[in-house]
Target: PQQ-dependent catabolism-associated CXXCW motif protein
Amino acid sequence: MIVRLTAIVLAAALLLIAVAAWADDLVAEPPGYRTENYRAPVPTTLNGARVLSTSETEAIWRTKSAAFIDVLPRPPKPKSLPVGTVWREQPRLDIPGSIWLPDTGYGVLAAATEDYLKRGLAQASGGDLGRMLVFYCLEDCWMSWNAAKRALTYGYRAVAWYPDGTDGWARADLPLQQTQPEPRPEE
Model:
């Protein structure tokens, strides 16, 4: 009896240690937008939005039942380049059919960038606030979390977030295509 009781107590203690370690790995949703260290572990939730696995994202993509929005920033041309230096933009590989709205996932957006995001979402949704929008970036990238959260504040009702982004998509050996960002008014 004592051996059995000791085994039960030991098992319960190990379970509590495992649960505590798992809980430490969870990232809480901040009350607002993430404004620093954008490449860090992300929450497993986004209040008001649907969080998608790779298989769920693939199913939605195959049925074309959502608009896909990539918010990965586009590296700017370095200002210190010598005159005459050729600058080549890095290609971006996206989930086919996506629109790329770079720089729209920061925690604080300039008015022009926020307007760019709003226009891009209106274009992607066809003006339908009920159309599903799937936001992504890279794995462990807060930018897509921020952009999805922001879309909720704009009144979009079917917001989904794919936290594994193109990293998870590529790991699943799903197709990617090279894309260019949606033009900005000043471009």
Remarks:
- Helices lie at 2-25, 54-63, 111-125, 142-153, 165-171.
- Strands lie at 50-51, 67-70, 92-94, 99-100, 133-136, 159-161, 177-179.
- The chain is about 35% helix and 10% strand.
